[in-house]
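Hello everyone,

My group is preparing for a crystallization screen and wants a predicted model to guide construct design. The compound we'll soak is fe (ii) ion. Before spending weeks at the bench, it would help to have a computed complex in hand. I've included the protein sequence and the ligand's SMILES below. Output in structure-token form would be ideal because that's what our pipeline reads.
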Amino acid sequence: MTELTQNQLLELVTTKQIAAGNPRVRALTQRIVTDLFKTIDDMDVSADEFWKAMDWLARMSQGGQIGLITAGLGFDRLLDIRADEADQKAGRSGGTPRAIEGPLFIAGAPRSHGEARLDEGEPKGELLVMEGQVLDLEGNPVAGALVDVWHANEKGGYSHFFPGMKPYELRRQIETDAQGHYRFRSYLPPGYAIPPNSPTSELFEALGRHGNRPAHIHFLIAAPGLRTLTTQVNIPGDTYIDDDFAFATRDGLIVELEHNVPPAGYESLGISAPFTRSRFNFVMQKAINESEASPAARMARVTA
Ligand SMILES: [Fe+2]
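Reply:
Good plan to model first. Here are the tokens for the complex, ready for your pipeline.
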């Protein structure tokens, strides 16, 4: 057969096989290719439109922007919504809500016990201490939990991705003390936007959407026997708090800020004047298998 209709071609593309392959990958690929063939036909996609899209995909991928696109098109939040739904069906509830990891986690941040400074030198924003406990669902403190915390600098950039920043700047791993306490000093990060003149901004301009994220701080918290918690907290008052490009704002994750807290007791963090404090406890569910307690971040889980 050398002449083919669309349907005959689709049949060939989705059924050719000389070995078993991976049945799950085969099924997903068949579905996606079928849907795309249908989209191209239904929307009368021209050859130029198709190749322009392929050029965009290649540039987006080469530029390391896949994680921005997945977040901006809702996939990261979708996976969280589906995980919440699965939990509800399984009768699992309680604890700090999960929130998207985002594409900018880096493993191996310097570890310290109980407390850490994320900032170096003069704070480049309003000085902040965030502190609290890691607890299990019964309210017991979790000693030795590993709290990875990372956030953007005053220009909205993350170390390892933004030029001019030091390795692990604004990234630390804090091991909770015997009472499950953690605390860190840093500065209030601003919100940030997707990079201008990038494949991501091209798409969002074409969609007539903005690319702003409200100010937030990321966490990845792991402890033996407990379900690894990936979440982020929002700083109150941000313009985009209810209009996040990545759809990540959640109830229960907007922190409160106390201003003009006296410095007594915070000397070890280099604080000698009134400062802004946020108290927040992280509550972790029990893990029901080893995989749930894995401390690996999302890409490390699938590329190990
Ligand atoms: Fe972020």
